[in-house]
Amino acid sequence: MTRIFDAAAGGKNNFQADKDMVRHFEQAAPVLTTAARAVLQFLARVVHHLAAVEGVDQFMIIGSGVPSGLPAGRRLHDIARQASPSPAVRVVYVENNPMVVTMAQATIEPFSDLVRVVDGDAREIDDMLGDRVVQTFLDWDSPIAVLLLSAQSLDDEEYAHYVIKRLRHTAPAGSFLALVHTTFDAVPPELLPAVRDVLAMTLPHLAIRTKEEVEGLLDGLDLVDPGLVWVPQWHPGTGDPGTGDPGTGDDLACADQPPTSGNYGAVAHIP
């Protein structure tokens, strides 16, 4: 899934087969590339907000694919560094795709002592949190921003709730949990059969949840305003520090039609 997302967002960490898959999705419902850009821009704004406004200087980004669709010097770890007053912002990317892990380790880690890329999976949350790099590279006595971008890979509802519980109870007080989740809530009824057919053939274990179901995953958490919304609606107008002019937000995908992003997003404070 991460390589398909990367291909849709215009990144380089993918194969031709992934680009072909994007074309299949676009034939069923021509919104995937726009949605991928909207998600990237949401992530950029979240990282910028948490670093600049909330003062977080540690990030664990789970299931991002280490997005290469962002411009050079504007990737998520770059945004965190540029926005934070701290000179020692640390970022750990957790990814389960071997190609993505290898490429990111080869192209990011040699140039920075403050970024690590580890092989891990939210579907094996206990192993992921126990990883040596995750445990030692981050300071677990200070607030951490955890970005869970692969919640749709958690197709067992009980286990999905367990993952959220583990993250919220493992993160130190004052931390934040950000969530992105794909939905079919805005897919026109006439397109739903074709979209579901393509999904069943390509990503059969992907969990597509309604807004109410995503709210259930976040139950009991203190959501940062504006709460759980379509990703373009989360702090719009504050600029897009990841892909456009930080002062204008000119590159804000789906700004006029937020539901076409196909993804909900939220940031929660962990007391």
Describe the structure.
It comes from Actinomadura luzonensis. InterPro entries: SAM-dependent_MTases_sf, SAM_dep_MeTrfase_SAV2177_type. The protein is of the alpha/beta class and 271 residues long. The chain has one domain (2-270): Vaccinia Virus protein VP39 (Rossmann fold, 3-Layer(aba) Sandwich), CATH 3.40.50.150. It has ten helices and eight strands. Strands 1, 2, 3, 4, 5, 6, 7 and 8 form an eight-stranded mixed β-sheet that branches. Helix 1 (2-8) packs across helix 2, helix 2 runs antiparallel to helix 9 and helix 3 (32-52) packs parallel to helix 4. The protein is globular. Residues 240-250 have low confidence and may be disordered.
From the structure above, extract its key features.
271 residues, SAM_dep_MeTrfase_SAV2177_type, methyltransferase, SAM-dependent_MTases_sf
Concise overview:
This protein is of the alpha/beta class and 271 residues long.
